[in-house]
Amino acid sequence: MTENIGFIGLGLLGMPVAANLLQAGYALTVYNRTPEKAEPLVAQGALQAVRPADAVTTGGIVVTLVWDDEALEDVVKSEDFLERLGIGGIHVSMSTVSPDTGRKLADLHARHGSVYVEAPIFGRPEAAAARQLWIPIAGPQEAKERVRPLLEAMGAKGIFDFGEEAGSAVLVKLIGNFLIVSAARSLEEALGIAERGGVDPTAGVNMLTSTLFTAPIYQNYGKMIAEKSSISESKIPQKDVGLLLSAAQNAQVPAPLSSLLLDMLENGDRSRT
Questions:
Q1: Residue 39 contacts by C-beta under 8 Å, 6 or more apart in sequence?
Q2: Which residues form the 3-hydroxyisobutyrate dehydrogenase-like NAD-binding domain (predicted)?
């Protein structure tokens, strides 16, 4: 574990994932658009890059975990990024972006002699800290084998291989997030009806999630909704459902539920007031 890993993007999920790498003994060079966010990792021994390319070593591995397609393309197309990565270098993209962007960036890397591997993350920041992440992966086989120990050190509980074609792993991530958001919205509506109908929502959700709906998503979100625990507001559901709908439209696949859910996410807050 003497290889220096570049890590770009220290948001709510990037920070605990990068911290896991440090704790596992990896040397890190980190970059974040807001430099102050890197300070906790620097205090633990990470080096801080001034620009994205400074986190890259020739023939090495660089990880990105940024917000969206535009942010990811900005990093890849920034000065010297691909040139520094060079022949044999691997870029592990853990961002949730569109399949089209994944395919485009994979082609761009190939033209520079480097490799693009998709490895988006299923898991909240607390799951990352507990090393309970699920990671679908896509890219050239040799590169996937090289980065697997890295993903395990980041906190992957399971790694699922979706072949070599770019776009496959992020499509699985988008589908998963669509199902998660759908489940959360269904629970919110159903438990609201239960409460108004005189049924204890906690008792209701406990019965249902211990029998018919035993998936962790139903159990965890059901408990939070029933107990009216705070669920942080996020732009992620709207972004990711929009990306899935775009992917469906590009593939000419009808997606009426995705369209309905996106409309709810865009207008739902106003309808609840």
A1: none
A2: 167-269
Q: How far apart are the C-alpha atoms of 137 and 15, rounded to whole Å?
A: 20
For residues 115 and 137, what is the distance between their CA atoms, to the nearest angstrom?
A: 13
Q: Which residues pair with 117 in a beta bridge?
A: 92
Query: What is the greatest pairwise CA distance in the chain?
Result: 65
Angle 58-62-63 (CA atoms, 0-180°, nearest 5)?
A: 175
Confidence of residue 195 (pLDDT cuts 50, 70, 90): very high
The pLDDT of 88-116, averaged and rounded, is 98
Q: What does the angle CA 126 – CA 242 – CA 67 come to, to the nearest 5 degrees? A: 45
Q: Which amino acid is at 217?
A: I
Q: Catalytic annotation on 173? A: yes
pLDDT in tens, 134-186: 999 999 999 999 999 999 999 999 999 999 999 999 999 999 999 999 999 99
Phi, psi of 41 (to 5 degrees): -75, -35
Q: Residues 123, 128, 131, 134: is their CA dihedral positive or negative? A: positive
pLDDT at 57 exceeding the cut of 80: yes
DSSP state of 131: T
Q: Are the beta carbons of 242 and 262 closer than 8 angstroms?
A: yes
Cβ atoms within 10 Å, residue 70: 11
Q: What are 115's strand-pairing partners?
A: 90
2 pLDDT band (50/70/90 cuts)? low
pLDDT computed for residue 3 by the predictor: 82
The reported pLDDT for the residue numbered 229 is 79
Catalytic residue selected from 104, 144, 173, 239: 173
Q: How deeply is 195 buried, as exposed, middle or buried, from its count of CB atoms within 10 A (0-12, 13-18, 19+)?
A: middle
DSSP 3-state assignment of 198? coil
